Amino acid sequence: MEELKEFFTSIIDDDLDMFFVRLIVALLLSGMIGFERELKRHSAGFRTHILVGVGACIMMLLSLYGFEDYIQKYDNIRFDPARIPSYVISGIGFLGAGTIIVNGGTIRGLTTAASIWTVAGIGLVVGAGMYDVAVLTTVLVLLSLIVLNNVEEKYLRQGSRGSYHIEVQRQENVKDLLDLLDGLQVDIDKMEIKKEEDIRIVLELSKSSTIDEATLLEEIGKLDGEISVFHKF
């Protein structure tokens, strides 16, 4: 029993409390950013951001404290503590690239990729013991993701314009579609209706239209009948 106690005493470092606190802080801060991404159903959410933040913190702790005995034993060794963190920052780009989705003219996931990269930086900062910088950065990131997102949705994305090619099979579907667009207060610059095998409707949204693509497609999908929608930027 005494030998077991000595074993655990030998592996528990005096700095264990400090390591524990830094890892927990990294978990909490990265988790807050990840939770915001999770709420918006992004591919990299709560768990991914936590793993990135805590992993980056571990790498910084390893860089700062993992080679102390080795350096003390060999006086001629010169060690650069910034080398491991630099690999973290460059390597995290591969993970961020996996969250970016390109679909035609639409690119999604850039913000989430940037948040993963930032969380890695927060983890490194926490690992270095710079708690104030880490907390401030987390607050700024959350403000950017939440507050600025609302500003962007309300003001900056109103200038987007797209052409929608909608194909319906029955005449009554045309009336339902027009009633829907009127109810959603969609501003339309141009509309063409062509009768072929199916009835084809070409819509060009106005720059002043505030409707977003996801909402428009969701509402069109609720209409009865077979309706096909093609979006061309």
UniProtKB/TrEMBL annotation:
GO terms for cellular component: plasma membrane. It is a multi-pass membrane protein. It is found in: Cell membrane. Keywords: Cell membrane, Membrane, Transmembrane, Transmembrane helix. The chain crosses the membrane at residues 19-36, 48-67, 87-103, 133-151. Residues 23-153 form the MgtC/SapB/SrpB/YhiD N-terminal domain. It comes from the Bacteria. Belongs to the MgtC/SapB family. This is Putative Mg2+ transporter-C (MgtC) family protein. It comes from Salimicrobium halophilum.
